[in-house]
Each structure stands twice: as C-alpha cells, then as structure tokens.
Design a protein that fits this description.
heterodimer, A: 575 residues, alpha/beta, ten-stranded mixed sheet, 16 helices, 19% strand, B: 580 residues, TIM Barrel, seven-stranded parallel sheet, 19 strands, globular, cytoplasm (chain B), Metallo-dep_Hydrolases_sf (chain B)
C-alpha cells in the first residue's frame, strides 16, 4: 500500500492501479503475476509490467487475488405492502462490497398484473441512483399471458435481461400452474433465457398453514412446520420434469434442504441442464432458531423455503457445492426491521420473508468449505463468481482475472478472523442471522470498477457509480447442450396410410383432447428416436415364439368385418 | 388327475366337498406337504391323514404346488367410455381371470363426473353381481371433489365395504384433481382408514405435449407415448408421495409402468413412506416399442396410460423390483377395447380408448419372468400375486392364504407347462393380445374358486353370476399399524412466548393472499377433532431442544443497532422482545 511518486494523498481517485506480487486465483488455476488496471479494465497481467508513472501500487505480498464475488440473488429495496426492505441499493451494495462481492444481481418483482417492463425500469432507476457496484437484474414473472410474453421477449432483446423467475409457491398470488410453467419454459427455451424457479408446493403449504393456525401455532415455528422440506424437494422435482420436457435450462433459486439438493444432483447425473443455488443462510445456519423464545430473533430467520431444522444441513450443502452438484451461491439478501417482521406477530404467515447474507457470503463459504478442505481456492472462485458469470453470459468480462476483464478484484486474506455481529455489520437490520459465528477468511482490499473501495478496513463506496450490466441471451454455459439436444430431437410420425377398418360410435362427452390455454410455438425435446429401430425392436419381445408379422390376420372366429368398398389397404390386419 | 371316492364317472362336480391329496402347500411364508379338505367354499382341514366324509371328490396333487388363488387388484371390466363399453364384461373378464389362476378381482368404479359415488358403486355392484364368475370387490375412483363426496366416501366405507379410493393426477379437465384437492381427499381417506390410490401422471404437461405432438402432425399411437414420457409419470409419483407423507395417508400407486416411477417408489420406501407400487401384466411382460408398429390396429392395442415404456429393458427391471419387495402387488389393469372402438382415435391418438389386456396372463407371466429366471421363489410369487393384495386391502387371511378357515380359492400350479399366448386361444373378446407370441412357462392345472373346480384338464366350468361381493373393512393392519403409530408420535406445539410488544410497522391493506384462501374446505370442526385423536406426519420435535441449540448465539439480549430508538411500552416491558 504505497504510492509511486505522489505520496500521502488520502483518497485515491486515480484510474490506474497496479497489484504487485499477488497470486492470481481463477476458477481453473492459480499463478503469481502482477496486474495492471486502467479505466476499470485489466490491461496487463504478467511480471515486470511496463506501466506509466504515478500509478498507485498495492503490494499483495503473495496474497491471493480473486475475481470479485457475484451475488446472484439479492432483493434490495424491495417494496413490501407499502414499506420497503431496510437495505436499499446503497446500503445493500455497500454491504456487498464490504464482504468482497463486486457485483449483485437483483430480482425485479412486479406485482401480479403489473407490467414487467415498467417494473424493470423502476428497478433500474432505483439501482442507478444508489448502487455502489455493478449490477444486473433478474425479472420475476408473477403472472402469465400473451402481453407478458411480449414483454419478456422485449426484455431479452432490448433490456439485457436473460433470466426470469417463476414461483411454484405463494398460492393465489405469484404461483403458476404446471401448464403455465410449461408455457413459460417453452418460451424461454426458444428465446435463450434461463428459467429460475422458487420451488415449493404452494397448494400444500396453503393447506398446512391453515392447519397450523387452526392448531393455535402462530409463531415463527409455524413457518417451518407448514413448509416441510419435502415440499421443496417435490417442487424441485416437478420443475426439473417440466424443464426437461421443454428442453429449457433450469436454475433453482434458494436450495435450502438436503432433499432438494439431492434431487438436483440426481437430475444432473441423469443429464438435465439444471443449476442449484444454495444461499448464505442455508450454507451457514439452520432452522432450529425458529423455536427461539425470543420472537424477534425467531422471526428474523423467516425466509422461504425455510431453513431446515436439521442442523447437519449446512454441512451437507457445502459438500454438494464443493463437489459441483450445486453450482452457484447467492445471498437472497432481503432484510426487514423487527418492526416490519412484527406485522406477523400474531400470524406467522404475515411475517415478511427474507434474511441477510450479502456481506457474509464469501467469508462464510471460505470458512465452511475451503478451510475445512472441502474445496480449493479455485473452486471457491467458481462458486462465488465464475459460474454465476457464465450462467448470466457475462463471462469473461466478470468472473475472471484476465486481460480485458473488468477490474473487479479482491485481495483475500485467508487468515483473518472475524466474528459476525449485528453491531458491526453494514446492513441496516437489527438482527444478523449469523450472530456470533466466527469466520476465518476475509477481503483485505476490494477493487470495484478499478477503484479501491475497501482498504485497511475502511469502506469508500460511492453511491450511484454502479452500472447496469446487460446480459445477452443463449449463454454458452447453459445453451450449448440445449442446442445440441434440440437438433437431435426430431419427432416423426409413423407413415401408415389411413386406417380403414370399422369405427365404433362414440359420444364426445369426455375425452383426452386437451383444452389448453394460449399455446406458444412448439420446441423440441430429446426423445429416444425409435422410428428407425422401432420395427426391428418390436420383433424382440417374443424370443420364444415366432414374431407375429403384422399382416398375419388375428381375428376371433365369431367376428364379422365388412370389407370396405374399393378393397383394403394393408394397414389393418382385420380381414 | 382327479378321481372320485365312491361314485365314479360323474361328469361334472357340483359337490361342495373337495379333498386335495399330496399337495405342496405354498403360502407367502413357507411351503409344506399336506392334504387340504374343503367344504362349503371354506378350507376345513389341513394336515396328513385327514378324516373326511365319504363321497368326497379327491384331487391327487402328486406333490405339485397348491397356492392361494391369485387376486387381480386392478381390473376395469365393462367400463363405460364415451358411450362405448369395454369389450370384456364381468362375465368374460372373470372367466379369463379364472382361466389364468386368478380367483378374485378388484374392479374400479369410475363415476362420470357429476354422478354420485354411491350411485355409481351400486351400478357396478349390479353389473358384477349378475355376471361375475368369481369373488370380487370394488375400488371407487374419485373423479371430482366437492363437499358431498366426503359423506359419500364415509357411506361407502361404513356401509358398503369399500376401503380404497383412486384419484387421478392426469386427464386434465376430466378426472384430474389439483394438489389442494388431493391433500383434502387424502386427509379424508386417512381419517376413514382407507387406502389412497393414485393414477400418477402429470396431466397438465401431458395436455401441453399432446397438443404439441398433434401440431407436429403426429396422430398415430406413437404420439400417445411421445406425449407421455416416463418422467411425467415419475414426477406425479413423487408428488403423490409428498402429499401422502404430508397427510400421513397410506398411498398406493396403480400401474407402475416405468423404471423411474418404480425408482421413486423404492426411494420413498427407503425413507419410510407408507407407499405401495403396483406394476401390471403389461409393464411386466412387454414394452412400448410396439407403438411404432406399422400396423395401426396393433399399435393401438398397446395404448394405455401411463404408456408402456419404449425402453425394452423396463419389464426386466420392474420384475427385479417386484422380486426384491420394492414393488408389492400386481394387477392387470385389464381394460380391453375392440379395434373398431380403438379406431375412434384413428386420426387423433388422444381419442384412442385406453387399456390393455392381462388378467388371464398375469400369473403365468410373473412365474415365467420371475420364478423361472430365479428372481423370486414360489413363496414370494404367492406374496406378489395374492397375499400382499389381501393384506393391503384387508382381506387377509380370508383370501391370500391357505389356512383353516380361509376361502377355498386355490390353484394347483404346474411349473413346467409351456404355453404360447395368442389372441386365437385367449378367453377374451378382443382381436389383439398384447403378449401375442410370448411363450410362458408355468400355468394353472386346476383352479378352485369358492370350493368348486372351475378349471380342470384345460376346460373351464364357470358359472355366470356366482361371484360374491367381498366387503372390506377399513384400517387394514398391514397398512395402518404404522400410520397410527406415527399419528400418535407427532404432536405439534407452538412455542410459548407471550405477546410480542415491540413496535409494529404500518401496513397497507393489500392482503398477502398466500395466507390460505382454501377452496371448499372440508368441515373444519371435524378436522380439528380428528387432529386431537390422532394427527399427522412425524416431525422432529424441537420444542425441547430448540432453546439450547439456539443458545449458540451470544446475542439474545442485546442485538440492537445504536441508531434505532425504541420507546418502552407503557406499563413496562415483557421479556419476550429483546429490544429495549
């Protein structure tokens, strides 16, 4: 931390930076080199770089330099029944930077019935005014019809949004039916979007909530009792089925339980294109706190899907994250004050949902997964940054230290030890769900857009400097496989000619014909092509006897069939 | 094979007394050599050197196996479909069943939406009583859900001996129920002590896929299987298991047709769910490659839902799971249609009436695929073809076991006879047999139903209308012992906290509608009462341990930001909020 040339300038505004002696950690390899940045971009990487004079130099002394974290799931400044979450884009992105995260991806939540584009523009406005770091936006689809479809198309083509979330929970509010999910997924697959799901079975939750309240359970423990982890796993399974049917890449937000994670890892083994996102809360704490006698504390843990009461869950999820079965991490940071949470003091279903985690995410994963030897530093970079950049199609601009990439870097101190507490955190909430947890590993210096924002423990974030980063459709990371499968899966009918045998009379009172709503143009999904092989295979199942040729007449003696006028074709074997 | 003590040469036996000598009795738990004496349709004595009245007809078994007659848990004889009726009625169907060694069938009552359950049940009783050749019982399908249904189900359970109800996750806009409705149906079923059966396929996705396939110009039977991929079956099974667990209701999956659906069931059982899986003759004996046959009529004969899997290794896999106990019972889902009836869907596969044959072939097929290949022994064979069904549906030990006091429904089994299945020789009314050309080893030599010989030396002597309706009591032990124990265990309690007295945010009145706008909720008073008697699914009891576990946190007293000002409420504060 010294200056070449001019010394003692308290705050740096220069656009030129040199990190000397750092160990660069990407998701594929680590190596020693210097990094030179200018105008927010990495210009040179190597030894003995030739750089202009007067450049601020940071001595890394062999410490790790990693790509800044990408928090792929935040809800800053989210409106909720006339109030907003306590962390707005300024407060939230400040907390992010303090934790080593240099980009956030926030969720736009249009009210059901409201325009997606208007909501998107509103969020853009809020974020542009206040965000201290770069950001992107997911858009949540809270209802579905043709005009929404148009808007989604527009968002993908013109607004730089490539990921959309649908809800399987929140019955009668955000929840979508299976048919709607099918249509949304079909459409997204066609336009190159990523389908995100909030996976919980809303119908059963509604029933269970009613049951809990009837039994007189009104506290936060009712929240987790009415949302058992099976319901999460069930919805994940269903979402995967629909996505696989429509050949659409799937992204499951907030993986909170072992069984949900298991389903995702099983599906990946079967070849499904599915990504799982555990969040800071599910990786760092558990749901036993819902039984706390302190209502305010118990309520601060309320989020959906809920934290699992099984205390071994965090360790299990960290293991799956390390093995690659889960792909990315977010924080789902969505904080409410105790007074806001108290809206639900007599009815747990009214408690606003959301937990903190944007600041703690990187350190927590380092502590739980890297210091314990579950993953190495490269995998750490992958799950905190690179994979997210790939899914959002921002790679290698974000998520990698390379020439030409954005100068979003973190010098990571592997030995720093901090205790998380609400007294020192950068969020505006009174509670921190990780209160008292001691973590090893922390950012020493954070560089965002080529500027130092964290140094010597001091945060120098500037509100409003964050840029919107547009994401383009068809990210290779997800769509290369999808495209290949699309080409493979061509369905063809069996050429048979017309059936010309007798036809029974029947009434159309009921039938299997689908009466479905507005239909999107069809996409194809892979199905084993049996058109070629079908005929020869059909001979197989009768290994003991001679295969019945299709044109041998099989007909009970008692049955009389009239030959149709003009003779018969060979398609019916009745003669 | 059989001789008469005393009077000889009486061509046809009408006596109610029968003695089987030198039999190897095969039950699901053991096999042993003994004689069996039957009278009035009931087994009276088992043992050696029995003292029996004179003039009894004797069957010499010569050490051959005698096993409990098969129970086909799933048939749809004489089923109405859009003005047509399934080709095999109760007479033709039960005759075929007896010819294959099955002495009892359980048929499905399918009420048209809008028709009362009891009325439909009575209609089926009437049809079956007049035509059935063997004992039968009835499942009732719930094809729509409203308040009246609950009372009707109660009537059926209490007065009509029905203890199983089937719901459909498929057939959108016809039979399909929503998840909430299924939750309610399952709650009712559990309270009544019945078994919840499901037809497991995701109807919403199927409807979308059907349209897509038709749009692509695929109208033949191959479209049927293309629009119903096996994943869609597995998904629905998984969902049904989840809802059943949630409601602590025993679950029975009808027609397990694919590997992945069977896997989901096996996995759920390993996790402790009370769930049973029923593969059918078709899924155990053939596969879905035939949907691509150039012969439309043949391809259409295989149309059933869920469809046969195009993966030709599926039957072997299902037979293995059946042998290891992951799947428990077998049915036939026998529901046959003439080619001319199938041809209703000649231009649109989604109109083809669904169903395959299998009641006659079921026992032989399983013997051939499982016992001959060494996957299971003869005792397990009895379990999956008869005993397990009797236990699940509360017919045991009257049915499903050879024991004194049990019904005289027996089969003398010949493990060595071979037969080629063909539509030319089967006992059905339809032109096609989906197992055409399959050679099976093992078949019934003598079949005894209600203490009378109905199959002997290859000829059938069935009597139309002699089948009795067998009523079934609720709360079968085999199923409900575990359910009851679990409901005792799981008592949910709130955490005693007193009133929260801190500040509360103002809220605009747009209600967050997620708080349970339930549909036609079944009488809540009743539910509450039942919750007190025995409730719901096991959940880890954290009430005791919660506090100490959360004690890890150091901050319970003072987590307060300095900037926040909280006014103490008048009259002091309670200890439940730590603010202040």
């Amino acid at each position: 931390m010294s200056y070449q040339g001019k010394k003692n300038i308290p705050k740096i505004t220069s656009d030129r930076l040199l990190i000397k002696g750092g160990r660069i950690v990407n998701d594929d390899q680590s190596f020693h080199a210097d990094i030179y940045m200018e105008d927010g971009l990495i210009k040179q990487i190597g030894d003995n770089l030739i750089v202009p004079g007067g450049v601020k130099t940071i001595e890394a002394n062999g410490k790790m330099v990693i790509p800044g974290g990408i928090d792929i799931h935040t809800h800053f400044q989210m409106p909720y029944r006339g109030t907003t979450t306590v962390d707005d884009f300024a407060q939230g992105s400040k907390a992010a930077l303090a934790g080593g995260t240099t980009m956030i991806v926030d969720h736009v939540m249009p009210e059901p019935g409201a325009s997606l584009i208007e909501a998107h523009d509103q969020w853009r406005q809020w974020a542009d005014e206040k965000a201290c770091c770069d950001y992107s936006l997911h858009v949540d689809i809270t209802h579905w019809n043709d005009s929404v479809k148009q808007e989604v198309d527009n968002l993908i083509k013109e607004k730089g949004v490539n990921s959309f979330q649908v809800y399987m929970a929140y019955k009668d509010y955000y929840q979508m039916s299976n048919s709607e999910l099918y249509e949304v997924f079909t459409f997204l697959a066609e336009r190159g979007g990523i389908a995100q799901v909030h996976a919980e079975n809303g119908e059963i939750i509604a029933e269970e909530q009613a049951r809990m309240l009837q039994m007189g359970i009104t506290g936060p423990e009712g929240h987790v009792l009415s949302r058992p982890e099976e319901l999460e796993a069930e919805a994940v399974f269903r979402a995967i089925t629909i996505a696989s049917q429509t050949n659409c890449p799937l992204y499951v937000t907030r993986v909170m339980s072992k069984s949900a994670a298991d389903i995702i890892s099983q599906a990946r083994k079967k070849g499904n294109v599915v990504f799982g996102e555990p969040i800071t809360a599910s990786l760092g704490t558990d749901g036993t706190h819902y039984w706390s006698k302190n209502w305010a504390k118990a309520a601060s843990f309320v989020t959906s899907p809920p934290l699992s009461p099984d205390p071994t869950t965090p360790d299990y999820l960290n293991t799956l994250l390390s093995s690659g079965d889960l792909s990315v991490t977010g924080s789902a940071h969505c904080t409410f004050s105790v007074a806001q949470k108290a809206i639900g003091k007599d009815d747990f279903t009214q408690i606003p949902e959301g937990v903190n985690g944007v600041e703690e995410r990187m350190a927590l994963i380092w502590d739980k997964a890297v210091t314990t030897g579950k993953m190495d530093e490269n995998m750490f970079v992958a799950v905190t940054s690179t994979n997210a950049a790939k899914i959002l199609n921002l790679y290698p601009r974000k998520g990698r230290i390379a020439v030409g990439s954005d100068a979003d870097l973190v010098i990571w101190d592997t030995d720093a030890i901090r205790t998380i507490t609400a007294k020192t955190h950068n969020s505006a909430a009174e509670y921190n769900i990780f209160e008292g947890v001691e973590l090893r590993g922390a950012p020493l210096v954070v560089i965002c857009q080529g500027k130092i924002v964290l140094e010597d423990g001091n945060l120098h974030a500037t509100s409003g400097v964050g840029r919107f980063i547009p994401c383009s459709p068809f990210p290779d990371f997800a769509y290369k496989r999808i495209k290949a499968r699309k080409q493979l899966a061509v369905l063809r009918a069996v050429p048979r000619g017309m059936y010309d045998g007798p036809v029974s009379e029947f009434s159309m009172s009921r039938g299997g014909t689908p009466s479905a709503s507005a239909r999107t143009s069809p996409t194809k999904q892979p199905v084993r092509n049996l058109h070629q092989s079908g005929f020869s295979l059909a001979g197989n199942p009768a290994p003991c006897g001679p295969p019945t040729p299709d044109d041998i007449p099989i007909r009970p003696a008692g049955r009389r069939i009239v030959v149709p006028p003009g003779g018969r074709s060979n398609i019916t074997s009745l003669s | 094979m059989s001789g008469y003590q005393g009077k000889k040469n009486i061509p046809r036996i009408t006596s109610d007394r029968l003695l089987i000598k030198g039999a190897k009795i095969v039950n699901d738990d053991q096999s042993f050599l003994a004689d069996i004496y039957m009278e009035d349709g009931v087994i009276k004595q088992i043992g050696d050197n029995l003292i029996v009245p004179g003039g009894v007809k004797i069957i010499e078994a010569h050490g051959r196996m005698v096993m409990p007659g098969g129970i086909d848990v799933h048939t749809r004889f004489q089923m109405p479909d859009r003005g047509m009726v399934a080709a095999d009625d109760f007479y033709q169907g039960t005759r075929a069943a007896l010819a294959g060694g099955t002495t009892m069938i359980i048929d499905h009552v399918v009420p048209e939406p809008g028709v009362s359950l009891v009325a439909a049940f009575k209609q089926w009783r009437e049809w079956a009583d007049s035509k059935s050749c063997c004992d039968y019982s009835l499942h009732v399908d719930i094809t729509e859900w409203n308040k009246g249904n609950q009372e009707e189900m109660e009537t059926l359970v209490k007065d009509h001996g029905v203890n199983s109800f089937l719901v459909y996750l498929a057939y959108k806009d016809v039979f399909q129920l929503s998840d909430s409705q299924i939750y309610e149906v399952f709650s009712v079923i559990r309270d009544l002590g019945a078994i919840a059966q499901v037809h497991a396929e995701n109807g919403d996705i199927i409807a979308e896929e059907q349209r897509r396939i038709l749009e692509l110009g695929i109208t033949g039977p191959e479209g049927h299987v293309l629009s119903r991929p096996e994943e869609v079956e597995a998904e629905a099974v998984n969902r049904a298991v989840t809802i059943a667990n949630q409601t602590n209701c025993p679950l029975y999956i009808t027609k397990v047709m694919s590997k992945s659906a069977a896997d989901v069931i096996a996995l759920a059982r390993k996790r402790g769910a009370v769930v049973y899986g029923e593969p059918i003759s078709a899924s155990l004996g053939t596969d879905g490659t035939h949907y691509w046959s150039k012969n439309w009529a043949k391809a259409a004969a295989f149309v059933t839902s869920p469809p046969l899997s195009p993966d030709p290794t599926t039957p072997d896999y299902l037979n293995s799971l059946l042998s290891c106990g992951d799947l428990q019972v077998t049915g036939s889902a026998h529901c046959t249609f003439h080619t001319s009836q199938r041809a209703v869907g000649k231009d649109n596969f989604s109109l083809i009436p669904e169903g395959t044959n299998g009641t006659e072939e079921r026992m032989s097929l399983i013997w051939d695929k499982c016992v001959v290949t060494g996957k299971m022994d003869e005792n397990q064979f009895v379990a999956v073809t008869s005993t397990n069904a009797a236990k699940i549906f509360n017919l045991y030990p009257r049915k499903g076991r050879i024991a004194v006091g049990s019904d005289a429904d027996l089969v003398l089994w010949d493990p060595d006879v071979t037969k080629i299945i063909s539509a030319k020789s089967h006992n059905l009314a339809v032109e096609y047999n989906i197992f055409e050309g399959t050679e099976v080893r093992g078949g019934p030599l003598v079949v005894i139903s209600q203490g009378k010989i109905v199959l002997e030396e290859g000829s059938l002597h069935t009597t139309e209308g002699c089948g009795r309706y067998i009523s079934r009591k609720p709360f079968p032990d085999h199923v409900y012992k575990r359910i009851k124990a679990r409901s005792r265990l799981t008592e949910l309690r709130g955490v005693p906290r007193g009133q929260y007295d801190g500040p509360v945010c103002e809220v605009t009145v747009t209600p967050k509608v997620m708080s349970t706008v339930s549909s036609v909720k079944t009488s809540p008073a009743k539910q509450q009462q039942q919750q007190q008697q025995f409730t719901h699914q096991p959940v880890r009891n954290l009430h005791q341990s919660g506090f100490s576990l959360s004690g890890a946190q150091i901050d319970d007293n003072v987590p307060r930001r300095t900037t926040q000002r909280i006014v103490a409420p008048p009259g002091g504060k309670a200890n439940i909020t730590s603010l202040g």
